[in-house]
Structure formats: C-alpha cells, structure tokens
Amino acid sequence: MNILKEFSLNDKCSYLKDYKQTTHYKIIDKCTTSYSQELIERGFRRFGKMYFRPICSDCQECQSIKIDVDNYHFSKSARRIMRKGEHIKIYIQTPSLTQSHLALFEKYHLFMHQKKEWDYNETSAEHYHNSFVVGHEEFGYEVLYFDENKLIGVDLIDILDDGISSIYFYYDPDYAHLSLGKLSLYNQIQLAKNSNKKWIYLGYYVEECPSLSYKSSYAPYLTLQGRPNLEEQYIWTS
Predict the structure, then answer these.
(1) Are 30 and 125 in the same domain?
(2) Are residues 109 and 172 in the same domain?
(3) Distance (Å, rounded) from C-alpha 143 to C-alpha 96?
(4) Which of 5, 102, 196, 213 lies in disulfide reach of 27, CB 3.0 to 4.6 Å?
(5) Counted domains in the chain
(6) In what order do the strands lie in the sheet with 2-12?
C-alpha cells in the first residue's frame, strides 16, 4: 500500500446550495482491505484510488450513516419491489468499462440534470475509469443489472471485512417504474445478510439535500460521531 498524495481543498459544497466545502483527500495505490475498512469506518468515501471526506469547520450537515443489517427487516413495500424485479438478471464482478457503461452513465446524468438540476459534464472513458474501475483492489465490485441483454443498472460497491460500502448507483431512467435505486440497496442488504456482514455503509446523509435525505428511511441505522482520525477510536451511535 502506498499513499501517493494527501491534501485538502476548498470548493463549493456538493450537497447544499450557497455553502462552501472543505474536503480531505487521500490518493492510495494498492490500498489493503483492512486500511480501506479503517477509512470507511471514519467517514471516508472511495472513488477509484481517491478516498475523501468533508472536514468543514463550521458545518456538520454531512452525517456518515450505516444500516444495521442484523436488525433490518424488509417492509411489504420492499418485498413488492423485489418481486417486481425478479425478472432482472444480476451479475457481480470486478469493475469494468464498456460502451454500454458509458452510454448508460451519460443517459442517467442527463436525466438527473433535467429532473433535479444536477451539474452535468460529459464523461470521458478516462474519467469513468479513474473514478470507478481503478483502485478496486481485492474488495471493489460492480453489480450489473440486465433486462434480457440490455444493461439497465450499475451498482458500485466495496465488500469489506464487516460490511458493504455503497459507492454509487446509476440506472436507465426508462426503467424507473422498477424502483431500481431501492432494489439495488435491498439487494446489498440481502447480500450482506447472506454473507454475515453487519453493515451497509451508506455514505453521507444530509437532511436538506433531496439526493441524500432519503437515506434516513433505511432504519435502523447508526451515525458516526465527529471526524475521528486514524489514531482515534471511532464511535457510531443509534
């Protein structure tokens, strides 16, 4: 394992309009599963070889949360969604990059730009590769969703020692009626239950951000207290 670079940047907030954000970055080559676990437990997220977390001094809106898998029970609504998606073919493998990936990624982000006014920039193969393919090491996977032979969803996850870190999910808006976002998370929870993993690390919950506020509906969950460094013990509370 080799930490190539470590730095902080100030920029506009990714989650709240008119807010500024300070983010701590670590770029790590050949990160081990155990070290990745230590970072995720302390509120870091991973894109490619880059681990990051907000360290804003005057704002605590970003709350790291993780679902308590052992005590999570699928609701009637969840079971309906899972039944509705029973015809979908699902494959899990190490992350890859194809033209189908890029086309689906573009289609999803154009849709979210129109629907929720997300910032939009056309994605290159290099950018996608650096964000979602490299850095997976022994723990990174993609879960592919197919309707017959058509790719309709891609779920990027890390399978760690005690849980699954949910990285990013994108899907074909034409299949919105299948609630693919919810289905992908239910499948993560089921995978964790089947693998005796205790947690789904959901990343950041931000109450005033519609794209992140939905996470509080997946109870029971725990919230990370503060921003512990690697020398400090982390504390998650319900």
Answers:
(1) no
(2) yes
(3) 10
(4) 5
(5) 2
(6) 2-12, 20-29, 50-54, 45-47
pLDDT of res. 209: 86
If asked whether residues 54 and 90 sit together in one domain, one would say no
With beta carbons less than 8 A apart as the criterion, state whether 109 and 118 touch: yes
Q: Which residues contact 229 (CB under 8 A, 6 or more apart)?
A: 42
For 147-194, the DSSP string reads ETTEEEEEEEEEE-SSEEEEEEEEE-GGGGGG-HHHHHHHHHHHHHHH
Mean predicted confidence (pLDDT) in 173-181 = 96
What whole-number distance in Å separates Cα of residue 43 and Cα of residue 32? 17
Locate 45 and state its tokens.
């997220």
The predicted model scores a pTM of: 0.94
Q: Provide CB contacts within 8 A for 94, sequence distance 6+.
A: 136, 140, 141, 142
Report helix, strand or coil for 6.
strand
Quote the domain boundaries for residue 96.
66-205+212-223
Looking at residue 36, its pLDDT comes to 98
11-54 per-position pLDDT tens digit: 888 888 888 999 999 999 999 999 999 999 999 999 999 999 99
Regarding beta strands 150-159 and 140-147, do their DSSP bridges make them parallel or antiparallel, or are they unpaired?
antiparallel
Q: 87 and 200, same structural domain? A: yes
Q: Specify the pairing of strand 199-205 against strand 221-224.
A: unpaired
Are 132 and 186 part of one and the same domain?
Answer: yes
- Residue 208 CB burial class (10 angstroms; 0-12, 13-18, ≥19): exposed
Which residue, chain included where needed, has tokens 């699928």?
Answer: 74
